[in-house]
Design a protein that fits this description.
Elements (H helix, E strand, L loop, with lengths): L16 E7 L2 E7 L5 H8 L18 E4 L2 E4 L12 E3 L1 H4 L9 H8 L9 H14 L5 H7 L10 H16 L2
Parallel strand pairs: 1-5
Antiparallel strand pairs: 1-2, 3-4, 3-5
Helix pairs in contact: 3-6
This protein binds FE2/S2 (inorganic) cluster (2 copies).
């Protein structure tokens, strides 16, 4: 068998693992090699390319998703480990919202926190988890909560402002 673009030669013919889980509220079932990361399965098997690939070693946060209510660097989790899990990706945040963006994503735009945009899906997922677990964070708590997410454009002040803005919006709902 000739490898496809997304397959390394050693994957071809390898035993596949069938994984059934929930992704953004919908049931998903994929067949993947045992060593396929969740990050690659989301992007390649499910077409959810909002989850970014960057360092692939747990250092940058670009691949952050929420699994069973907690943030995960999806480059460090095997897809096979997601069996039965409830996964939220950036595509699921604004699903059903007018314009397709949730309040947090709107706040990133309003605060001017998006420069090249590459880190933003991971930043948004980390911020969503932070606000779910601490709805009224201090600036220091935001910086601490977002410390695993790097921005090469160094837009950190505006990212913090976007999280503060979202917290204020949610407090008045
Ligand atoms: S790509 Fe996963 S932490 Fe950098
Ligand atoms: S906006 Fe460019 S890396 Fe963060």
């Amino acid at each position: 068998m000739i490898p496809t673009e997304d397959q390394s030669a050693d994957e071809v013919g390898a035993d596949l693992v069938v994984v059934t889980c929930s992704v953004n509220g919908e049931s998903a079932r994929v067949s993947v090699p045992p060593h396929r990361t969740l990050m690659d399965a989301l992007r390649n098997e499910l077409g959810l390319t909002g989850t970014k690939t960057c360092c692939a070693e747990g250092e940058c946060g670009a691949c952050t998703v929420i699994v069973d209510g907690a943030t995960v660097n999806s480059c460090l989790m095997l897809a096979a480990e997601a069996e039965g899990c409830d996964i939220l990706t950036v595509e699921g945040l604004g699903a059903g919202e007018p314009g397709g963006l949730c309040d947090l994503q709107e706040s990133f735009l309003e605060a001017g926190a998006v420069q090249c945009g590459f880190c933003i899906p991971g930043q948004v997922m980390a911020a969503e988890y932070l606000l779910r677990t601490n709805p009224d964070p201090s600036v220091d708590e935001i910086r601490e909560g977002m410390s695993g997410n790097l921005c090469r454009c160094a837009g950190y002040q505006r990212i913090v402002a976007a999280v503060e803005l979202t917290a204020r919006k949610r407090a008045t709902r």
